[in-house]
Amino acid sequence: MILRIQLTLGVIGLSLLLLVLELIRRGKLREQYSLLWLFTALVMLVFTFWPGLVGFIAKITGLYYLTALLVVSFLFLVMILLQFSTIISCLADRNKELAQHLAILKWRIQNLEAKEK
C-alpha cells in the first residue's frame, strides 16, 4: 500500500476509534449502536498495520488493489446503513404504539371528566 494512503487510513481509523469511544463515554452513543463503528475503525487500523491484507483480498476477488479497498469500505457502509435502517424501523413502530396509547389515555381522561360533570 502506498505510504500516504496507509498513513491516511491509519489516522482516519484511529480518529474514528477515539471519536466513537468518546461518544460512548459522554453517553451520546449507545454501546449497542457503536459496535459496528468500532469494528469499522478496527478494520481500518488492521489495513493500516497489515497492508498486505488488501492485496490478498484483491487477489482473491480478482479486483484491483484500490478497487478492493473501495469494495470493502462500501460493504462496511452498507452494513452500517442496514443497522440504522433496522433501528429506525423499530423506533417508528414504537413511536406509533406510544401515540396509540397516548390517544387511548386522553380518550379515557375525557370520558372520566365528562362523567364527573
- Poorly predicted residue ranges: none
**Number of β-strand runs:** 0
Strand content: under 5%
The assigned structural class equals: mainly alpha
Helix content: over 70%
Number of helix segments?
A: 4
Number of domains: 1
Describe the protein's topology.
Blueprint: H1 3-26, H2 31-49, H3 52-61, H4 65-116
Helix pairs in contact: 1-2, 2-4, 3-4
Task: Provide an overview of this structure.
By secondary structure, this protein is mainly alpha-helical. The chain is 90% helix and 0% strand. It is built from 4 helices and no strands. Helix 3 (52-61) packs across helix 4 (65-116).
Which properties best describe this structure?
4 helices; 117 residues; 0% strand; mainly alpha
What is this entry, summarized?
This protein is mainly α.
